[in-house]
Amino acid sequence: MGRIRFGVLGPVIAEDAAGRPIALKGPMHRAVLGRLLVARRRVVPVDALIDDLWVAPPAGALAAVRTFVAALRRALEPDRSPRAPATLLITQGSGYALAAAPADVDAWRFEDAVASAPTADPATALRVLDEALAWWRGPAYADFPDAAWPRADRSRLTELRLQAVEQRAEAHLALGRPAEAVPDLDEHVTAHPWRERGWYLLALALYRSGRQGDALAVLRRARDLLAGQLGVDPGPALRTLETDILRQDPHLSGPDGPAAAVWERAAKAFDRVRVGGARARLESAVGLLRNLAVTGSDGLSVAREQRAAAVAAAEQLDDPELTARVIGAYDVPAIWTRSDDPVQATTIVAAAERALSGLPPAGHEPARARLLATIALESRGTHDPRPLECARQAESIARELDDPALLVFALNGAFMQSCHRTGGSAHRDAVGTELVALASRHDLVTAEVLGHLIRMQASCATAAFDPADHHAGVADRLSRRHELPLVAVFTQWYRALRADVAEKVADAAAERGYRAAAERLDHAGMPGMRDGLLPLALLGMRVRRGLPIGSLSGADWGPYEPWVRPLLEPGRTPLADVPDPPADLLAEALWWLFARAALDAGDVPAMVRARTALAPAASECAGAASGALTFGPVSEVLAALTRS
Fold first, then answer.
1. Percent residues over pLDDT 90 in the chain
2. 275-515 domain in CATH 1.25.40.10?
3. Which of 90, 106, 353, 419 has the most CB atoms lying inside 10 A of its own CB?
4. Hey, what CATH topology would domain 1-152 get?
């Protein structure tokens, strides 16, 4: 039957892997299941079960409990042979335990979601909480309203649900959507009038929606209900909010309110002053897009789209110098070596090459260096020597001009072209070190973050987790201070890898860590990193831990399919037909997969090919240079290749 999921956020239920309900017979069977779920994988003695199931246990209570358990086992594990030990509802000593995975119980998933929301960015928190609140089908343990055994868990889950409703409203407010928070908050405070946080959020949402009078009326209503039902006055937060609304305090418009007003006035002034000036508008627009690209997933996607339009518009003006400036002004830091939009990247590279050839042979060195750096940055994962040479030329020009910002851009291009052979983490660490030093001296924040992320990845490559922790921590602090939310995508993947490899957390916890990182990546606007990364990480985790990998055979491997399939489906593709992996941060991981497939097949030419490719990375861990996953030390697979 496969994976079983359990639900207690409503009546107690069980479902198979396809979401079909599993017949649990009568209420006593559901009560036993619910009682075991309350125990959270701990053993419940039979005596405790009997006391919880009956007010006055009958003479045959023990036999009845055993009958209920046997029926539940048949329902939950119908394919288990009669003499095989149970793996889900297990007997231990004189009691029973339900060995459900944390991800398979709706209440446990709900707890994790509510716990993760406060530290997530508002868009992610809203998505997580929307999904989590939808799991509720009624009161927790709804079919046992009078039983004592679910009472404490029901109260705790109910409180968490109320917190989730309030966190969801906070996310709406943080995203500048106060009107969307009002209906749910109104229902929330009507049902739970003692929750002052709910009243506070409702009044604030109304005020930010332009409904000052309604906000004050809500606060008066809260005061009347609290005094009438509980005999208490509103707390200081509600009293202060009422005063601030009456004063129309500027801080009530939200953290972005004053800044948004300044932005809007500046944009209007620019439009008023710059009636014409297509060239100036294009260059100014690219400056805005460069800043937009680091503000989050929506900003990154919009910036990527509009950048292509800006380059096309510049080329239509038939001015190579303008085109060079428009292309080169987009010096957004790049840390992942696979393109988010390969078609657009090819277009940008072609435009940069045309602009290069159109520049006068003398002069315009800064523009020339930026075009060369752009070619290096946009030509990701290629073995073509041209982008590598462009990176070297850009770096040389930047050093000669002694231009820190230009050198940062050129070094980013050098980083992107640092994977032409495996085992390049030491070189990348040197690039990251110089970026951090340059950025610190010249107050180039995004470059400083980039340098720390590069050093975090390079440290992972050799399992040096203490320095990796340092660089991840600095990157996170800078990202919070300067509002760079996409940084957390990379540091969360790193922490999932660290928990798996360095902390050696339990199998289920390791998988949860990778899945949580993938959820953030789902909404980061970076398909080049997202596609296929989660199943590849889970494959690495399971291979290293000696766990079965067959359940991953149906996964969407994205761009990694050519190197995964020979391992999962031996003989399907001749290894001679498998291409070399792209020159990117996962090259060692993909060569590792190829090497294992070659060893399994006893294919000597393929083994020689893999050994030659992996030899420079002998001191590294396969895939860990990505800061996201690993298949283990390269030295181990090299030793196996040498023996065979």
1. 61
2. yes
3. 419
4. Arc Repressor Mutant, subunit A (1.10.10)
Residue 134 makes CB contacts below 8 A (sequence gap 6+) with none
107-146 per-position pLDDT tens digit: 999 999 998 888 788 888 999 999 999 999 999 999 999 8
CA distances for 253 relative to 26, 244, 639, angstroms: 55, 11, 63
Q: Which residues contact 227 (CB under 8 A, 6 or more apart)?
A: 233
65: phi then psi, degrees, rounded to nearest 5: -60, -45
User: Strands 632-633, 621-622: parallel, antiparallel or unpaired by DSSP?
Assistant: antiparallel
Q: Could you give the CA distance from residue 289 to residue 293 in angstroms, rounded to a whole number? A: 6
pTM exceeding the 0.85 threshold for the entire prediction: no
- Fold match flag (1-152 vs 275-515): no
Task: Encode pLDDT of 137-178 as tens digits.
Answer: 999 999 999 899 999 999 999 999 999 999 999 999 988 889
Tell me the residue type at 545: R
CA 363 to chain centre: 45
DSSP 91: E
Lowest mean pLDDT: which of 17-21, 47-51, 221-225, 597-601? 17-21
SS3 category, 29: helix
φ, ψ dihedrals at 13, nearest 5°: -140, 165
176-273 adopts what CATH topology? Answer: 1.25.40
Residue 94 neighbours by CB distance under 10 Å: 10
